[in-house]
Amino acid sequence: MQTLADASTVDMTRTRLRLCSGVTFTPQVYGDQTFYHIEVGAKSLYYRIGYTEYVFLSLLDGRTSFCEALALTARTLGADALPQPQAMSLYTWAVENKVATFAEGDASKSTPDKPAATNPLQKYNPLWIRIPLGRPDAMLKVMQPFLGWLFSPVATMLGVLLMLAAMFRLATDWDRFAAASENVFAKENWLWLLLAWIGLKSVHELGHGLVCRRYGGTVRETGIILAFFAPLAYVDVTSCWAFRSRWQRIHTAVAGMYVELLLASIAIFTWTQFRSEVTSHLLYNVIVMASVSTLLFNANPLMRFDGYYILADLLQVPNLYTESGLAVKRFMSRVLFGIRSSTPTVGGGHGGILTVYGVAAFVWRIFICFTMALAASALFHGAGMMLSIMAAVAWFAMPVVKSVKGGLQIFHSEPARAVRGAVIATAMAGLIVAVFCKMPVPFSNTAPGVVTLPDGRMIRSEVSGFIDRIHVVDGQRVEEGELLILLRNEDITSEYQDLRLEHQQETVRYQTALKEHDAGTAKVARGNLASLDERLAEAAQQAAALEIRAAAAGIVVARQLETRLNSYIKEGEELLLVDDDQPRELRVSVAQQDFAELESKLGHTVPVRLGTRARTTGIVTRVVPRASRRLPFQSLAATEGGSLPVVSASGDDGETESRLTEQRFEAVIQLRGEDAATEHVVGERGYISLPSMHRSLGSHAYYGFRNWLHNQIAATTRAARG
Hints:
Blueprint: E1 16-19, E2 23-30, E3 33-40, E4 45-50, H1 51-58, E5 61-65, H2 66-77, H3 84-96, E6 100-102, H4 120-123, E7 128-134, H5 137-147, H6 153-172, H7 174-179, H8 187-214, E8 222-227, E9 230-235, H9 246-271, H10 277-298, H11 306-315, H12 320-337, H13 351-413, H14 415-438, E10 443-452, E11 458-460, E12 465-470, E13 477-478, E14 483-488, H15 490-515, H16 519-545, E15 547-549, E16 554-557, E17 568-569, E18 574-579, E19 585-590, H17 595-599, E20 605-610, E21 616-630, E22 646-650, E23 656-671, H18 676-679, E24 685-692, H19 697-721
């Protein structure tokens, strides 16, 4: 059984190394310098070294010792040869990264095995599951003659022109495109969107594979990655790192996005030919998935997708993620412990960029973990939280363990440096916590609302029934007491008629008893009449409520009222408005954390924004001190294009209705303006701004991100239920 020596316990100057099988060197020229890409075939790992390092490593044949290789390098390169410390660092690096191994019979073989540290949990990360589906190279070889021309220079230029034409066409019909973004829920939509997603990702990976083969590469594997249970296709085109031209490698990485953008352009021209709302909505989603989503997701260099490999080639740093992590490690070692590493880097003059990228990638990883934790908790409740914990352990357990071990090693070898590091780290952590969680930051929160008329202007049904006749239309002027709508309810009408008849009969009985001087019968009849009077008055009130009349003179506001003819309405249901030119109100829904801020504004003005018009102001006239999960207006729901996250719940009558995901308060803002009665449209959405100096940056970030995530989950859940 082959063993691997621990470089920290072996005198490396007395050892002999040989290059591992499957390791190949490919010369590549960047500017006026020659570099060599190292490919570790068995691991699909790639590194870049300079010519000097290549000369040294090429001498490791299993018979040449470290000292002999160093001497031969100095004889060959003269003053350009590696100094002994750098050569030893490179020598050790080659062993640790599986580029070289100890020769057979070397003295180091007596050292027990010490396999490279790996994180076994990452293989079983429940939120990132890799499922290989085989080697597609043979299939791509067959497809290459038929589809490979799509990536030729001429075809690519024509494709770019098509994209520009599609952008221009979309700009000319932007209003209709924006309207198509409204959720059109149909049971079959979810299936079509899923199929579209799978199709787009399949052709995306097909583009990578075809371009890779175009330049002589091979596609070793294809499969599916379940990222948070969402299927993502992948192809292994790591062979492109052997291409001599970095532009060929960049072309391979860009190919997937190019194909999707091409399909998005075709979808735009197709969308312009259809007027069906459902078809337009489906094409809208295809356009967004193939363009905006692709660019935001695949072009993001912080994730190991297309954008990552493009940036790695632009910076000429293979294994960008690993090298940036090492750059951050070196930076932190220098800041915390004052240790300057002599290990050679492959980043060249990009050390600062690598450090910034490493920090950004680490922050992004935490952000993704936090996002998944919130999403899993919202979707799967307790089980989702367990999945999130497992994923966090899989991602962060090994780095934390390595950091702790490194700190302990420094503590045992150089206690003074360890104390310095602990003091600086504690101070930095305290400063970050103070800035992020304690220091107030001037932010402006918002509370969404809908423009309404003051109480009493809304006409509601006082009884249940069917709309029998509609006597007005939207925009018609009516006078006080004028008949607007006539309802039909046979139960109310019959009960009223029966009570009238019964009352008449009891009246006759009472009068007869009086004429006959029958005191007992008259007393009973009088009692019955008193009871009937109460019941008849109530029945008469209900019967009169079947005639819905205007409470004041004004203009009827009732869009599409005629479509409700013969429909059933419940008691208290809103039917229409009678606009009597009184100032409008903005009824807003306020988050719990903003209640105290808004309550302090009672009687004062606050900034108001309605639609896309210029800001105006309003006076906070009332704040309801009781929180509720009741949705004040359906148009405020995230599923209807609003900003409030909602969930489906059963109402008191057993029917499904939308409820807020958390309790919120309501408030009334009286709108101001030179002509507030006509300037503000009833039913229009708007919001108020609440400047806050009492909440921290962390608090703002947490609540803002949580609301956004709830909105996405609510919209997705509603679409899935159709």
